[in-house]
Amino acid sequence: MPRPDRTPAASDRAAKAAKIQKAGAAAERRRGALIWGSAVAVVVLIIGAVVFAVVRDSPALADLSAVEDFDNTAADHRNEQIDYDSAVPPGGPHHPAWWDCGVYEEQLPTEHAVHSLEHGAVWLTYQPDLPAEQVEVLTSLGDADYMLVSPVAEQESPVMATSWNHQLELDSADEKILQAFIREYKQAPDTPELGAACTGGTVTDLVARQ
Q: Which residues are bridge partners to 123 per DSSP?
């Protein structure tokens, strides 16, 4: 028997159903795109925040304009006590034996420490009453080769970073600036005895004290 033609009402219902299905599918696609777009935006924001934090804290952007430069003569070795112009001299005459690099809780013999500078070491010094958390920053930075860390009671600034012919005075242990100083001046090209050892020297004061 021949199939009767659909009534107009049935055709309209089918059309409406198809239209609703099509609209639903489009809405799902928009919702999916929105979810993916939001996820991508969040990831971009996270990456941007991380990059900003890394760049902001990078030693490469630290301001070293306060570093003072000096002009000291190398290889001036003396066995006797030396009267320096400052509590932490950035070079000058010194004892023939260098002080072994490392972190020390007591004040070091200056004549030996200056010889370590001649070998390319960076000497981080601090006033004895520096807060413990700042001393910890210096101690952490000093846990590397060619580094000296010690208190110096007579220095005028709370923290000082010193290499041969270069010195920076700070009000606190600013890790970013100190890292920049170390990167710039440890084993620097103007080191008089570049590459000479910073171990195998002495940890005993050998200066002929008056």
A: 148, 162
